[in-house]
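User: Can you predict the 3D structure for this chain?
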Amino acid sequence: MKAPIRVAVTGAAGNIGYCLLWRIASGDCFGHDQPIILQLLEITPVLERLQGVIMELEDSAFSLVHDIIGTDDANVAFNDCDAIFLVGSRPRSKDMDRSDLVAANGPIFVGQGKAINANAKKSVRVITVGNPCNTNCLIANANAPEIPNSGFSAMTRLDQNRAGGQLAKKAGVPVATVEDVFVWGNHSNTMYPDVVVGKIGGESVSGRFDSEWIRGEFLTTVATRGKAIIVARGASSAASAASASIDHMRDWWQGSSGRIVSMAIPSEGWYGVPKGLIFSFPCRVSADGVITVVEGLPVDAFAQAKIDANIAELESEKAAVSGLL
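Assistant: Here is the predicted structure, written as structure tokens:
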């Protein structure tokens, strides 16, 4: 049997964390032959609820779970970790805008970045889920100088999954037939789902649907899906966000098998994106976890305008948290 890996989840008693933990414990993320030790972080007032979550996990009797640690100390939660899900943050409510999220959540990720730097393995893989996830990832990364930049990412897989779901619905086919649709930029209304190399059942997406729908209703639906869910259920996406974070980390841990997937990672200047911005690119991941940006894809004037808008938004967010970097 493989040696256990240590997996930390912050905000573990929250809605996303609650959905996430059972998927991790069942082997859906790291493999059904990979034992794990769960290290769960919550704020002090929520520790009793976290204990209830731990009790449920124990009652589920997952064979892969070798130990569960619950704590309000980030240094304990991140100790010797191989993988970290930064989920805990204040969720967006109906009346909050993006600047409110930046102000409320930025300081959280300063402390977590420092705790990761001091305690986690240098090879750790960190996914930021809590919004605004790109900028929260930027803050955590900046405060963990001893962890390679390649160890940090933010989740735009939810946007990719939403895009795939809308394409499949429009085409009347299973979503499994949708391939290589990806997302540029920020996990916000500005993000751009690109179908330039996307296929449905081997047929080009752009050849199947007219550009007016792709650049109109499709784009709007994907971009505003998060807000629509808040309006419909009175709370932010939880189960779908948890599922997307599993997809993201699974592909990072086990490889994307040649598929193009969306990952927001520190830019090295790809496609003209300023170095250091946490930006979603089309990526492939090797079986040993190396993320490679797919370069040379066609970018027309419409796509370039969308990329530029995401750059501008992320640079604005970066300026707003400059004191935390």
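The chain has a mean pLDDT of 95. Residues 128 and 154 are 5 Å apart (CA to CA).
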